[in-house]
Amino acid sequence: MKHTHIYPVVVLSTFAVLAGLMAPAAVYAKRPMEYLDRALVAMEVRNAVYLSWRMLGTDAPDIGFNLYRNGEKINVQPITESTNYTDAKGTVNDKYRVEAILPDGSLEHSDEEISVWAYGKTVSGAPGSAPLRPYKTIPLPEPPEGENLIPGDMSVGDLTGNGKYELIYMWEGVGPYLDAIDLDGKHLWRISLGVNVTANAAPILVYDLTGDGKAEVACITGPGTKDGTGKLLSKGPAATIDHTKILKRKSSLMEDPAFITVFDGETGRELATTLFWPPLGPEEEMQKVWGDDRGHRSNSIKGAVLYHKDLGPLVVYSRGIYTRVAMGAYTFDGKELKQVWTFDSDDPSGKYRGYRSQGNHSVAVGDVDGDGSDELMYGACAIDHDGKGLYTTGMGHGDSHALGDLDPDHPGLEYYQGHEGAPYGVSMRAAGTGKILWEVRNNGDVGRAWAADVDPNYRGAECVAVGMPNWDSKGNVIPTNYNAYSQPIYFDGRPQRALRGGSSINGEGGRILTGWYYGAATSHGSKNDAMLIADILGDWREEAIFLRSDKRALIMFSTWIPTKRKNPTLMHDPTYRMNVAVQNVGYNQPAHVGYYFADGAPVHDIELIRHGETKKKD
Fold first, then answer.
1. Is 443 helix (H, G, I), strand (E, B) or coil?
2. Are 460 and 454 in contact (CB under 8 A)?
3. CA pair distance 435, 553, nearest whole angstrom
4. What's 147's DSSP letter?
5. Which pLDDT score, from 0 to 100, does residue 331 have?
6. Could you give the CA distance from residue 257 to residue 174 in angstroms, rounded to a whole number?
7. What is the pLDDT of residue 24?
8. Burial level of 60, CB count in 10 A (0-12/13-18/19+)?
9. For the purposes of burial, counting CB atoms within 10 Å of the CB of 364, is it exposed (0-12), middle (13-18) or buried (19 or more)?
10. Residue 19: how many CA atoms within 13 Å on its side-chain side?
């Protein structure tokens, strides 16, 4: 078996070293992305087995594949036109594997065989005529003993370095817990965040922060937090605190300290802890500084990972939406979290006062100005990769957004947003400069809005907002009537996206999937969220993971619909990957690629970092 080894170019960041920002580290000549395996999935369909597998972002466009059923090759010629195949002779009892044919003619051989997902059983109340659909049941570990908790927000990453994704999710409630499981339900670890952390103020950041091919997990922690080995936090400022102290709270926490902790992804062991910045401040000043005196708005904490071309991944955590907006960014070298910049709308100089109250209930990440580093889209404002304010529109807070190449005829990425306060309704702006491309004013709260290419009759994204008409990517009203409470998902094989509403998915021809027939339930009350929507398995279509209605398992749907579109995994598009990483932050928002999908995928300037095979030059 022949492997291709990755040899990243090391550039010593003179600025970073001289400024004392971090220890000298490898900086890659190309954007580093996680190595992933082929993620073959097989599903029972009518009188056949449908197979789908992953094309990597570094694969040649004409790469070919072979498929094996029970050890025997089933294709006569290499499969080069797509990354899906229907095996008319396959049965639910068969085993399959896939191998890639590399440009030099060698084979990327894998001995791993996968089983077929069988048709799922429908639940009581589903119509007798309901179509049978394949899905995967992922059992959940027993909930924490004595705790009335519900599985909630979820993220995904390769925690073990084997090229496969694991799932990380929060058991939500007072004293929340983090669990990590693989896609078969094997329990890796459990972290007890303790009563001093609330789930809605603890965004989960799962990303390879050290460049070793294995993802770490970052989260907000506090006194009483126990890591995945059962030990109380003991690094940095956590070494000298009283872990028995329960901090004062009204509706939310009213006093410090809070921490940021990075955990080892494979074991849940604490790797580094530092103080969360900014602190809450005096209780008597909360109303003025953060917007209420109950701790609610001051505990509106957001998180993100930004890729910095000189410093590598930055962990960013922020506080505030409606009044003060402040955040800190940190590097992690495997041993220490080091703060490299802060941003504060209430900076004494007054230069960032226009950023006050401009935050959204969620964030987006992307290289919006084309400088090789990511920026943080923080609602109606944007923060540059170095912690400086990039711009603010002054249009105020909103609940929902979309970042992507929404208007393919306009250069760069665009950002579409709904706004909460009059006179602003929705706006489309150039993501890199803040220039408003078009807007529609409104006197109400535009609490739901999305933009995505779902209709081939209109070039670019269709734009939707609750209580308002639909628009094309340039702001022209169009005669469609899409539901503002839906969310886009790549599922049915078209270059356009289908729409998820609750646990159901609708495509061009109508309803594709009715998830509740099989016990799939949504999360977060009226928001009707899926646990996660991301390209986890198979080809470039997205998987939808829902909580099962009894809360004892997850249900994962992957498409069984053939497509002629051959496309690299969406997870090797940097814009998409960074926004999967923040999907769990605040109000869950779908991730978009950084290119106009209907025009075809670009060749990304990336290199894959594979655990155990990455070699750094001196």
1. coil
2. no
3. 45
4. -
5. 98
6. 17
7. 36
8. exposed
9. buried
10. 13
What is the reported pLDDT for 140? 97
* SS3 of residue 570 by DSSP: helix
Provide the token pair at 52.
Answer: 């789908």
First to last CA, the chain: 28
Tell me what pLDDT residue 618 has: 33
18-26, long-range: CB < 8 A, 24+ apart: 21/311, 21/331, 21/338, 21/340, 22/311, 22/331, 22/333, 22/338, 22/340, 23/333, 25/211, 25/312, 25/333, 26/211, 26/312, 26/616
Sign of the torsion formed by the C-alpha atoms of 134, 505, 507 and 61:
negative
Q: Which amino acid, residue 124?
A: S
By the 8 A CB rule, do 139 and 185 touch?
yes
**For residue 469, cis peptide bond before it (omega within 30 degrees of 0):** no
For the segment 552-574, what is each residue's pLDDT rounded down to a tens digit? Answer: 999 999 999 999 999 999 999 99
- Residue pair 133/558 in contact (Cβ under 8 Å)? The answer is no
3-state secondary structure of 480: coil
**pTM for this entry:** 0.95
pLDDT, residue 29, reads 81
What CA dihedral angle connects 571, 572, 577 and 580, to 10 degrees? 0
Residue 462 one-letter amino acid: E
CA angle 317, 218, 16 (to 5 degrees): 65
Low-confidence ranges of the chain (pLDDT < 70): 1-27, 614-618
Peptide bond into 278 cis (omega under 30): yes
Q: Are strands 259-263 and 270-275 parallel, antiparallel or unpaired?
A: antiparallel
| Angstrom distance (rounded) from CA 184 to CA 187 | 9
Residue 63 makes CB contacts below 8 A (sequence gap 6+) with 55, 80, 100, 101, 102, 103
Q: Tokens in use for 473?
A: 């990517």
Q: Which residue has the tokens 């998820």?
A: 500
Res 524: pLDDT: 86
Predicted local confidence at residue 148, as pLDDT: 81
**Dist CA 65 CA 83 (whole Å):** 8
Cis-peptide, bond into residue 495, ω within 30° of zero: no
Give the amino acid at 132: L
Identify the pLDDT of residue 27. Answer: 63
What are the structural domains of the chain?
A: 28-120 (2.60.40.10), 158-276 (no CATH), 279-398 (no CATH)
Give the gyration radius of the chain's Cα atoms: 24
Residue 567 has a CB neighbour count (10 Å cut-off) of 22
Cβ 203 vs Cβ 184: under 8 Å: no
Q: Which amino acid is at 255?
A: E
pLDDT in tens, 418-460: 999 999 999 999 999 999 999 999 998 998 999 999 999 999 9
- Eight-state DSSP code of residue 144: P
Other beta carbons within 10 angstroms of residue 102's beta carbon come to 16
Q: Which amino acid is at 181?
A: I
For residues 445 and 467, give the distance between their C-alpha atoms in angstroms, rounded to a whole number: 9
Element (H, E) at 580: helix 574-581
